[in-house]
Amino acid sequence: MAVVSACRIQDGVVNNMLARSRARFLFVAPLSRYVRFGLAALCLLAIGFLWWLLAGAPSADKVFGLYSIRKFVALVAVSYALLWGIYFALSREAMRGKVINATVSTVSLVMVVGILELPALLGILDYRLIISPPQSVLFTRIKPWEDPRNQMDSELAHIRRPGQRIVGNTAGDLVGWLGIPANRRYPIDAQYDSRGFRNDHEITQAPVVVLGDSFLEAGLVAQDALLTTQMARLLKVEVANLGQSGYGPQQMLIVLRRFGLPLTPEVVVWLFFEGNDLLDVSRYDGLMQEWTRYVAEMHSFKARSFTRNALLMLTSIAIPNPTRDAAARDEGRRRSCHFTRSRSEDGKTIYFAYPGVPLSDQELASLGTVEKVLADAHRLTADNDVRFLVAFIPTKFRVYHDFCEFPEDGYGRTWQPNDLPARLEEWATAQGIAYLDLTPPLKEAAAQGELVYFPDDGHWNAQGHEVVAEAIADFIKANGW
Fold first, then answer.
1. What are phi and psi of 205, to 5 degrees?
2. Structural domain of 182
3. What is the DSSP-derived secondary structure letter of residue 20?
4. Which of 1, 164, 263, 283 could lock onto 206 through a cystine, CB 3.0 to 4.6 A?
């Protein structure tokens, strides 16, 4: 009996211990599950918070319009690690299995990227030519000297590839910068000749040659409406377009020597744009001084890389963010005006890229270089018995500021056009160089309510090309050239 009683007591103790253990297990198990779900939720919240925290001011050169490439890569790496943290927290698989899965997946991902990068590393493939925004978009998104579709040139830095045709559509070049709320797109259909200039047919001889930059290349204007096409109709002679976006005075002098004079012209027209031709002087000098490094960068593995170009492609995808876009839109509003004489609804609000401010010390120094370049061009044409005309292109603000109503805090209320056209005319007259200021005919058209520049782009539209073509053709005829 004593033995039986002892066994019963022992069984009771064991049962009590089992009951207590079961109670503890029932309490701990749910707690463990809550902890795991809490950790997973914390990782998920951390991902969202980091992407929100590191989003910057909107810009057309950022991934999704919000992140620099370096920040985006860092965010992807941290998010990837946190996603595995969620997996480790929620999966019921053994720890060894979790580690194997994470390791295999990560190694596989690295191998896939490595396989994609190998052709670029070996110089077989340039992903800039495959996974980047369309060439038409690049007209307003990328500097010509940074565009891999252009040919590199040790004298000119860059030039369009011979015979190419660019077709597509794009927004005005001020839309992204100024946050302009417009869905307007401009068609592009630009054909280039065997020299890399915008002529839709081969030209072996041209009585008139026109030199210039993006105003002359004019990607947003149809071939039939181009300045040179309209001049050819007015003068009834072949007119060669030797304009190239991004070219400054030094490059235009090289174009004159290499491409212009071999066409045996009777007249050379040099278009000088006040907005950036002075700035282009120092930019070109800097580019030539760093030419070896520049070439190396343009041909580097980093430039050809799949990863880098895939990220750059994402910069063409912008996430609308009204709060962050407010600063850009405010800048756009301050750089805008109500064109009081506009004949069309589209032209009632126009935006200005270049301000009306006094010439800076750097610009005055660059003006000296411009004058030397123009003097060289004048001597070169005179030596070949060719007439030489410098035509001054004004900024949109210089043309429209007298016909505008500006916002209360608009820049246009304090901006004033500088004296650059008068300075240049005085110098040209002293040098015996023919000079034509295009401001009066463009301003006359504006006074009549005409829109001669695109409202959301800094360049002439088709109407502007027509006004300028008539002004230059009239000058050539009036002088018996």
1. -150, 135
2. 150-289+308-478
3. H
4. 263
Whole-number CA gyration radius for the chain: 33
Question: Which token pair is 428?
Answer: 């040209």
pLDDT tens for each residue of 276-295: 999 999 999 999 999 999 99
The rounded Cα 394 to chain-centroid distance in angstroms is: 22
Q: For residue 140, is it within any domain?
A: no
Position 23 pLDDT exceeds 50:
no
Quote the CA–CA distance of 280 and 248 in Å, as a whole number: 5
What is the mean pLDDT of the segment spanning 248-271?
98
What does the alpha-carbon distance between residue 170 and residue 188 come to, in Å, rounded to a whole number?
Answer: 7
Rounded to whole angstroms, what are the CA distances from 42 to 150, 206, 361? 49, 72, 56
Tokens 């782009």 correspond to 457
Secondary element (H or E) of residue 227: helix 227-235
Among the listed residues 128, 116, 270, 115, the one whose alpha carbon sits nearest the alpha carbon of residue 208: 270
Let me know if residue 332 belongs to a domain: yes
Residues 332 and 246 in one domain: yes
Distance from C-alpha of 174 to C-alpha of 177, rounded to nearest angstrom: 5
Contact between 398 and 353 under an 8 Å Cβ cutoff? The reply is: no
Strands 387-393, 434-437: parallel, antiparallel or unpaired by DSSP?
parallel
Same-domain check for residues 38 and 155: no
Q: At residue 309, does pLDDT exceed 50?
A: yes
Q: Which two tokens stand for residue 306?
A: 């799949």
Rounded Cα distance, 307 and 114, in Å: 10
User: Do 467 and 436 meet the contact criterion of CB atoms below 8 Å apart?
Assistant: no
Whether residue 270 is found in the same domain as residue 363: yes
Residue of 392, 354, 385 whose CA lies nearest to 370: 392
Alpha carbon 171 to chain centroid, angstroms: 11
Distance CA 472, CA 461 (A): 17
d(CA 462, CA 275): 19
Q: Are strands 186-191 and 165-170 parallel, antiparallel or unpaired?
A: antiparallel
Q: What is the DSSP letter of 170?
A: E
**Residue 136 in this model has a pLDDT that exceeds 70:** no
Strand-pair partners of 169: 187
- What average pLDDT does the segment 205-233 reach? 97
Residue 30 has pLDDT above 90, yes or no: no
Residue 112 lies in a domain: no
List, in sequence order, every residue forming a beta bridge with 389; answer none if it has no partner. 269, 434
Q: Is residue 327 scored above 80 in pLDDT?
A: no
Domain at 428, CATH number? 3.40.50.1110
Asked if residues 244 and 251 have their Cβ atoms less than 8 Å apart, the reply is yes
Do 224 and 372 fall into the same domain?
Answer: yes
Q: Is 268 strand, coil or helix?
A: strand
Number of domains in the chain: 2
User: Does residue 132 belong to any structural domain of this protein?
Assistant: no
Instruction: Determine the longest span between alpha carbons in the chain, in angstroms.
Output: 141
Report the run of H or E that residue 392 belongs to, with start and end: strand 387-393
